[in-house]
């Protein structure tokens, strides 16, 4: 599959973006050359899949779509996790809502330590042979479990992990330690989420005049980006973007594009005004001086052995 350099994420479909806005966002992404759309069963409990399904209907084979399973969809203990039962039933539901007979990449949304590698891989093989998925990927997995699944697949002649989806932005660089090097070594595609830190790197969370949304109202994001160091990063990042005369969203996405280990960052936006500066990231590259200045604001993480002097 050949994917565009930017992907568009549909997490806002059916929540911050109603159906009409979702359609405008989809068309704007398509008109900018994006053919790659990330989705998940859990986004608005299936509503994002329904909206995306209707939008791709007329051009299904021209676009690459993902969906995900593993997150709890109800209180039913079997309606979550990576068991054969849940993955099979979950994908059936996703295909129905997406109104398609296959997904290009089926992601496991997070690790489920209680399900064996063999059960996960043989389920993927069954779905692959049935033509319901073209490939599968892992999101929010450790490098060690990803590597184990890759090795077991090779030993047992089962389908290989083709793509990973870690969180990655200037404020959250942990995946640089082990996940990105593993992906490069194993030649696995990397699509990264939250390029703007859920909005942290747009400046609005340090600007009292502009009401903030996700980082204030959503307890998960409030916890994820709540420490003082993240506000310092946001403030210094905004100051640098202002000095450079670049929209902070453009700068944040451009910084990810500068990393050759990333296949495509997944853009997130709830309006066209939000999406436009992120799309502009592709029009230019960052020079070394700017990359160094960004490293001063948020330092690269230490290597896995924590001996920073050897990095
Ligand atoms: N695999 C996973 O676990 C996982 C997790 C998260 C996301 N994802 C995927 O990655 C995609 C992108 O993630 P994300 O939404 O977290 O990305 P993000 O780019 O870090 O955050 C997007 C949010 O930032 C704000 N924003 C964007 N552009 C802005 C601008 N120009 N000015 C001001 N605010 C702006 C908006 O927040 P408001 O909505 O508050 O206005 C927008 O919803 C998702 O759609 C989804 O497909 C995957």
What is the ordering of alpha helices and beta strands? EHEHEHEHEHEHEHHHHEHH
Distance between the termini: 35 Å
Structural class: alpha/beta
Judging by the overall fold, what is the CATH architecture?
Answer: Alpha-Beta Barrel
Strand content: 5-15%
User: Main sheet?
Assistant: 8 strands, parallel, barrel
Give the count of helical stretches: 12
The dominant shape is globular
Radius of gyration: 19 Å
Uncertain segments: none
Q: Order of strands side by side in the largest beta sheet?
A: 1-2-3-4-5-6-7-8
Total beta strands: 8
CATH superfamily: NADP-dependent oxidoreductase domain
Structural account:
Helix 10 (248-257) crosses helix 11 (272-279). This protein is α/β, with parallel strands linked by helices and 311 residues long. It contains twelve helices and eight strands. It is globular and about 55 Å long. The chain has helices spanning 19-31, 47-56, 84-98, 117-129, 143-156, 179-186, 214-217, 219-224, 228-244, 248-257, 272-279, 288-297; strands at 7-9, 36-38, 64-69, 105-108, 136-139, 161-165, 189-192, 264-267. It has one domain: NADP-dependent oxidoreductase domain (TIM Barrel, Alpha-Beta Barrel). Bound molecules: NADP nicotinamide-adenine-dinucleotide phosphate (NAP). NADP nicotinamide-adenine-dinucleotide phosphate binds next to helix 11.
């Amino acid at each position: 599959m050949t994917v565009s350099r930017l992907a568009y994420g549909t997490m806002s479909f059916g929540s911050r973006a109603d159906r009409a806005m979702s359609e405008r966002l989809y068309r704007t992404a398509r008109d900018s050359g994006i053919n790659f759309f990330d989705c998940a069963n859990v986004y608005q409990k299936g509503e994002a899949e329904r909206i995306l399904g209707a939008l791709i209907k007329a051009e299904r084979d021209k676009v690459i779509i993902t969906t995900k399973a593993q997150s709890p969809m109800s209180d039913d203990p079997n309606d979550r996790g990576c068991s054969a039962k849940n993955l099979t039933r979950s994908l059936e539901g996703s295909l129905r809502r997406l109104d398609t007979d296959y997904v290009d990449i089926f992601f496991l949304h997070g690790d489920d330590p209680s399900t064996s590698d063999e059960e996960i891989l043989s389920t993927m093989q069954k779905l692959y042979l049935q033509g319901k998925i073209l490939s599968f990927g892992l999101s929010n997995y450790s490098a060690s479990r990803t590597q184990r699944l890759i090795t077991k697949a090779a030993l047992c002649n089962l389908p290989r992990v083709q793509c990973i989806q870690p969180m990655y932005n200037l404020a959250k660089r942990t995946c640089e330690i082990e996940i990105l090097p593993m992906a490069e070594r194993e030649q696995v595609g990397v699509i990264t989420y939250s390029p703007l830190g859920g909005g942290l790197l747009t400046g609005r969370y340090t600007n009292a005049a502009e009401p903030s949304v996700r980082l204030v109202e959503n307890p998960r994001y409030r916890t994820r980006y709540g420490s003082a160091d993240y506000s310092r990063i946001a403030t210094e990042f905004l100051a640098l973007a202002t000095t450079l005369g670049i929209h902070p969203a453009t700068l944040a996405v451009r910084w990810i594009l500068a990393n050759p280990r990333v296949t495509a960052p997944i853009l997130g936006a709830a309006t066209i005004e939000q999406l436009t500066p992120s799309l502009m990231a592709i029009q230019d590259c960052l020079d070394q001086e700017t990359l160094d200045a960004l490293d001063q604001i948020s330092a690269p993480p230490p290597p896995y052995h924590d001996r920073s002097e050897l990095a």
